Amino acid sequence: MGVSGSGKSTVGAELARHLGRDFADGDDFHSNANRAKMAAGTPLTDEDRWPWLAAIGAHLRDEMIAGRPAVVACSALKRVYRDRIRAAGASVYFVFLTGGEDVLMRRMQGREGHFMKADMLASQLAILEPLDPDEFGVTVNVSGDVPGIVTEALADFAATEVPGIA
Predict the structure, then answer these.
(1) In terms of residue numbers, what domain contains 88?
(2) pLDDT tens per residue, range 126-162
(3) Is residue 114 part of a domain?
């Protein structure tokens, strides 16, 4: 989880590879209407997000029930969004990728062909709520390299007992 440019897809794919799990990008769960809004520079409303978050939660739940816990890259910027994902019935461990605004902006400006525009970063940072102490997960700064970020996340995950996730 984290704002755009934090490396959710890259880190998520690497975490999935290390864990031997399937990876899904949360962007793939967005409706075409949501994608169009973001591409036009219009921030999504909570009403836009509810079906998207429910779909991600259902995917995680279904994979868990099938004995295939999965990794999904998803912004999950607010506690209420993470609660919506968990409400589907999946046990979830969050890796909160965080970094300085300058680092995040530089990463976003270097991407080509992504529907999320760099000027949307400020709106995401404005609503961002870090993990609460009662949420399973770890906060990792993204100013380092991907292998270091993945190692830090995996070490915390291995030391945390999350119900339903082995």
Answers:
(1) 8-159
(2) 889 999 999 999 999 988 899 999 999 999 998 888 7
(3) yes
Report residue 61: phi and psi, to 5°: -65, -50
pLDDT digits (tens, 9 = 90+) for 17-29: 999 999 999 989 9
Please count the residues of the chain.
Answer: 166
**Alpha carbon distance 42, 99 (integer Å):** 23
- Short-list 96, 119, 123, 97, CA closest to 109: 119
> Taking the model in full, what pTM does it have?
0.86
What are the strands, taking DSSP E only, across 120-162?
Answer: 137-141
Q: What's the total number of domains in the chain?
A: 1
Q: Where are the beta strands (DSSP E) in the chain?
A: 23-25, 71-73, 94-98, 137-141
Lowest-confidence region among 31-45, 46-60, 94-108, 139-153: 94-108
Rounded to 5 degrees, what angle do the CA atoms 40, 42, 122 make?
A: 115
